[in-house]
What we know:
By secondary structure, the chain is of the alpha/beta class. Helix content is 20%, strand content 25%.
Amino acid sequence: xxxxxxPYWVKKAYLKFRYWYAEHFLRPACDELGxxxxxxxxxxxxxxxxxxxxxxxxxxxGEPNTPVKLGVWGREPGQGSITVGDYVLMSPGTRISASxxxxxxxxxxxxxxxxxxxxxxxxxxxRTERSERVMPVHVxxxxxxxxxxxxxKGVTIGENSVVAANAIVTxxxxxxxxxxxxxxxxxxxxxxxxxxxTRADFFAEPVKQAEFYDAVDRMVLSKNGxxxxxxxxxxxxxxx
Length: 240
Ligand SMILES: CC(C)(COP(=O)(O)OP(=O)(O)OC[C@H]1O[C@@H](n2cnc3c(N)ncnc32)[C@H](O)[C@@H]1OP(=O)(O)O)[C@@H](O)C(=O)NCCC(=O)NCCS
């Protein structure tokens, strides 16, 4: 379908169900889940383990083959944590696996299939043992992690920095730079004097923003008929 053929009320019902699902199945999995979340296809988001805190206005996008996965597997029961700030975006395929501690700042954007871990999980010489080499990972405010990049144990990424697509980050990244490659190296300095527009700006007034999108949906979808929507699903044509 090239256009959204759903009647307004069908979309509203879908969004209500989606919200209910996230509240019913994902909220209990978190120690904290802030208000105004947008969790798309929450049935493809998995949150496992203790001490997982997520701030307000988070956007999580689950997809069937690329679910979003947050997991804490501490060294002892109840140990380990993942702390996610406000206004964070996690695209399909994002995986965050913590043994001890991973913190994600406010307004961090993660593109598809980003992987962040604070542990190697297996010993280099004894592959059957759990690795003791664990070092916390801290991702600063307003960091942008590009498509398929990997952030490994012990890394701190300074605020506003950008990690290029497919980069493997093995060492600390200063603030206000672009890093790329494997292992990631600084390829560009950013000018913080120019200022950054962030997801915190975008979500400054979440209630008003939700009302705005609802008004747009009402305007665009209100002329869609129920039977035409069914017809378009079962017998689509190029005009759909
Ligand atoms: C990080 C990024 C945004 C930087 O873009 P940019 O500021 O225009 O950077 P440039 O193209 O000037 O690249 C600077 C240098 O880094 C290199 N570089 C850029 N991206 C790279 C990558 N992914 N891997 C390796 N090297 C890369 C460039 O070749 C260039 O090297 P040079 O100075 O020797 O010529 C961009 O390279 C990128 O990775 N985009 C993908 C973003 C993404 O994942 N989006 C998904 C939706 S959220």
